[in-house]
Design brief:
The structure is a homotetramer. In chain A, about 20% of the residues lie in helices and about 40% in strands. Chain A is α+β, with helices and mostly antiparallel strands. In chain A, strands 1, 2, 3, 4, 5 and 6 form a 6-stranded antiparallel sheet that branches.
Chain lengths: ~130, ~130, ~130, ~130
């Protein structure tokens, strides 16, 4: 797999902000998930909804998120992603969010996923034959 | 069907509030949906997730919501529901939300739903044989 | 005010879909709100978050939503908006969502809003001096 | 501060489930946040919304979440919390979610928070005078 970085430009929506006037912590998981799914679809040609219909479900196993700055109403940001394998079964996503106006790091995450087929872990290569590890 | 009113006590969660410091408008649809599903499960003995696995999907067709007061952080509220049939295919839910501390009306909604089986409308009685209209 | 239609292109995010595999009803209110706020910022030069800091809050008073089709994972859609005045105090937004691939109407909404300043209704023109009614 | 464990019983709401039919990963952050805020209000007598009005904002600095099992529609769960100090400025929440029907661990989290007053870190004791560290 190429380690080329994937990048998505997104914009804060007002309903994502909470009573502190900043994007709620949980919403970053939405941003991170959306970026992973867009990456899977665009680059890996894997459709998350179609995989589910075939009883194949990539599942997040562990997530670590650091919050550095707060996104606010109107902020545009770049959501960046790199994917790596760890061992035979795990996929690790390194993700970062940068505020566009000053290119400052807002948040970063390490997301460890495994792929389940009929509820049992399978090697990622099984479902991603178009990839060479 | 009995026209007895169904009632659920719920509490605002801080992440449901937006930058105006009040519960976001869209969250009332979450409250209303949750109340309908709990009513279906508790009173009608219908499980929304199980129905979906049998290709039966109650679908909201139209919703009208009036907003009278704003719920805020910490507010406890009563979510009330009555169900009626309209014609052969439609089910109408009349729903209201009252703030508990002063029993004031916060919001009310009229929700019209139809039931789809394999994508086509069916009479509600088909899936609710334990009900007499 | 010009009655020119405002238009925003958006894409379904997988986390917006519920266990029926379709975008949850409440999420359309998110789409509709985001479109109104973008319209306010882009066309009317009004910043929702900044208005709130000045104790000015546009508030949704009533919303009517019709659901015609269901958006699904991967769908791109156009969110369209027209704004009109109704009487002295009300602003009405007519909103529609069209699925991009076949231009079919997915949902439409009528949203009635009032503007509160320090908790009391004010004429929209007060906060939008750059508009001629 | 007492290290007594705080506990909250909650129930999955259908709109929290995604197209995989399970509670979406990001929703656990909502559960965890709600439990922290209820703990703050019930045990520490601290109101998150009121603190914000005084320019005091507890902020999540880092979160680590492990996902062991998936919650599904209808599941009832216990959300448990313990709080500890780390150094002078950090508060650490150890949180766990157990499925009620079989008492199995669903997810656990370590949440590190700091308290900002007018944007600068302050000792937690400053805002929690009723606590002895």
């Amino acid at each position: 797999m190429s380690k080329k970085q994937y990048e998505l430009e997104l914009k804060v929506r007002d309903y994502e902000c909470d009573l502190q006037g900043i994007v709620n912590n949980s919403v970053y998981q939405n941003y991170y998930e959306h970026t992973r799914h867009e990456y899977m679809k665009d680059v890996l040609k894997l459709d998350f909804a179609k995989l589910h219909e075939e009883n194949i479900d990539p599942i997040v196993y562990r997530i670590e998120i650091d919050y550095k700055l707060s996104l606010r109403s109107g902020d545009v940001f770049m959501s960046k992603l790199k994917m790596e394998y760890e061992g035979l079964l795990k996929i690790v996503f390194f993700q970062e969010i940068f505020r566009k106006k000053d290119n400052k790091l807002v948040s970063k995450a390490k997301v460890i996923a495994v792929t389940l087929k009929n509820g049992r872990p399978v090697k990622p290569a099984v479902i991603m034959p178009n990839l060479t590890q």
